[in-house]
Amino acid sequence: MREYISKTQPEILLEIRYEYRTQHYKVWDGEFDDVVLFSREMCETKLTYMHQNPIRAGILKEATDYGYSSAKFYEYWHSDIQSELLHFLEVF
Fold first, then answer.
1. Distances (CA, A) of 62 to 19, 36, 56, 68
2. Is 76 within 8 Å of 63 (Cβ atoms)?
3. What is the pTM of this model?
4. Is residue 92 scored above 80 in pLDDT?
5. Contact criterion met (CB below 8 Å) for 85 and 73
6. Which of 11, 58, 71, 92 can bridge 51 by disulfide, Cβ–Cβ 3.0-4.6 Å?
7. CA dihedral defined by 23, 66, 60, 55, rounded to 10 degrees?
8. What confidence tens digit (pLDDT) does each residue in 11-67 have?
9. Whole-angstrom distance, CA of residue 40 vs CA of residue 89
10. What is the DSSP string of 22-49?
11. Contacts 24+ apart (CB under 8 A), 46-54
């Protein structure tokens, strides 16, 4: 991720600088909650939140543009994207 940011938006590297053990940069919040995904609505809420993280961090404008995100899979899952991911719509 650092390489991607340094190529696309090097000006924000100083803003995300973070030193802890072997970690040098921090983009996401350190807090997390584990949540049981028990419904389609819960899955959609959590996926939207995760996919919006790079946008909130100012890395890009569209979640599907981020190569390390599953956003493209979920946006175009009916297409010929090869993946071992199981789409939540196939479950709920």
1. 28, 27, 10, 13
2. no
3. 0.56
4. no
5. yes
6. 71
7. -70
8. 888 888 888 888 787 777 776 667 788 888 988 898 999 899 889 888 889 998 888
9. 7
10. TEEE--S-S--------SHHHHHHHHHH
11. 47/74, 47/88, 53/27, 53/28, 54/27
Could you tell me the two tokens for 61?
Answer: 């404008």
CB–CB of 25/13 below 8 Å? yes
**Residue for token pair 């995904």:** 37
The distance from CA 65 to its chain's CA centroid, rounded to whole angstroms, is: 11
Residues in the chain: 92
